[in-house]
């Protein structure tokens, strides 16, 4: 297997969230670092993840004709051979009280709920299997985009009508954004559903990649891609709770400052779930 590079790659989903807060002072990687994991140990921890860490939370996708909400219940691994990636739909009534069962921007800000219909989205959480220390691939959105310009995110985006499920959408978006062939991605599992204030219901799909990567960035969406050691992201010392003022109120959010990058919002919230399982 390839060795870990000594430098980051220079290559976004729609990771919806608030406007990017001011960049904090330069943050150096803290020590001691979390012990590096192997492919086998990662798979083992996913297999043994307790229900509290990986709930396969019900989706709250809006169904305008049978409203205001419907539920897409993700299957747990024991329900089939898709390792939690298959879904079936169950229509329900008003399910806003059930938001407390789902991760999201409201997890740290209980009143920060979506105002309108939820739109289904999926992201790939790409783990690159370097022998000495796996890394996670991130992207930064281009500055000219109309929403969430310049933010750090995972590859991914909205689930299109032609996508068979969330995993299909995550693979397609990854191909479109950074040029990674879906056949080169080994799907591992899915994390908890994450709901954003801006109305996206995100299904995070975890996948393995073998190095070295050959990326082809979509210049319309992706400004750059970079890697962060998984051990850094699993070290609780590197997780922060920051705050900013939004609409006259202080809002709290998770953040992982890494070198000159500021990973926050929905992306950081998804990483917290990953930390709970692998940490």
Can you tell me about this structure?
- The protein has helices spanning 39-47, 166-178, 230-234, 265-278; strands at 70-74, 87-91, 103-104, 119-128, 135-141, 152-153, 156-158, 186-190, 194-195, 200-209, 222-229, 240-246, 249-258, 261-264.
- 15% of the residues lie in helices and 29% in strands.
- It has a domain at 39-54 and 103-278: Alpha-Beta Complex (Nucleoside Triphosphate Pyrophosphohydrolase), CATH 3.90.79.10.
- β12 (240-246) and β13 (249-258) form a beta hairpin.
- With 279 residues, it is of the alpha+beta class.
- Strands 3, 4, 5, 6, 7, 8, 9, 10 and 11 form a 9-stranded mixed sheet that branches.
Task: Please tally the helical runs, counting DSSP H or I stretches of 4 or more residues.
Answer: 4
Order of helices and strands: HEEEEEEEHEEEEHEEEH
Strand share of the residues? 25-35%
- CA gyration radius, whole angstroms: 18 Å
Give the fraction of residues assigned to helices: 10-25%
- CATH level-four homologous superfamily name of the domain at 39-54 and 103-278: Nucleoside Triphosphate Pyrophosphohydrolase
Strands, total number: 14
Level-1 CATH class name of the domain at 39-54 and 103-278: Alpha Beta
Which CATH-level-2 architecture of the domain at 39-54 and 103-278? Alpha-Beta Complex
Which outline best applies? globular
> What low-confidence regions span 5 or more consecutive residues with pLDDT below 50?
1-32, 52-97
Q: Determine the N-to-C terminus distance.
A: 23 Å
- Determine the CATH topology of the domain at 39-54 and 103-278: Nucleoside Triphosphate Pyrophosphohydrolase
Question: Which structural class do the helices and strands define?
Answer: alpha+beta
């Amino acid at each position: 297997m390839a060795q870990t590079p000594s430098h980051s790659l220079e290559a976004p989903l729609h990771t919806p969230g608030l406007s990017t807060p001011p960049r904090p002072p330069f943050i150096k990687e803290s020590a001691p670092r979390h012990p590096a994991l192997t492919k086998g140990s990662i798979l083992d921890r996913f297999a043994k993840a307790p229900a509290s860490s990986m709930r396969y939370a019900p989706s709250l996708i809006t169904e305008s004709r049978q409203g205001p909400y419907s539920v897409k219940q993700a299957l747990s691994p024991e329900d089939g051979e898709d390792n939690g990636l298959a879904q079936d739909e169950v229509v329900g009534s008003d399910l806003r009280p059930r938001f407390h069962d789902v991760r999201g921007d409201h997890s740290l800000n209980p009143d920060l709920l979506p105002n309108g219909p939820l739109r289904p989205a999926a992201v790939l959480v790409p783990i690159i299997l370097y022998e000495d220390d796996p890394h996670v691939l991130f992207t930064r959105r281009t500055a000219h985009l109309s929403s969430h310009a310049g933010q750090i995110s995972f590859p991914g985006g909205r689930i299109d009508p032609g996508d068979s499920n969330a995993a299909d959408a995550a693979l397609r978006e990854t191909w479109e954004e950074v040029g990674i062939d879906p056949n080169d991605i080994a799907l591992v599992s899915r994390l908890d559903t994450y709901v954003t204030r801006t109305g996206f219901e995100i299904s995070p799909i975890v996948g393995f990649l073998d190095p070295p990567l050959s990326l082809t960035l979509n210049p319309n969406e992706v400004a750059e891609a970079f890697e962060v050691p998984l051990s850094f992201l699993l070290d609780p010392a590197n997780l922060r709770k920051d705050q900013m003022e939004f609409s006259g109120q202080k809002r709290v959010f998770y953040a992982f400052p890494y070198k000159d990058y500021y990973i926050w919002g929905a992306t950081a919230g998804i990483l917290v779930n990953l930390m709970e399982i692998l940490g």
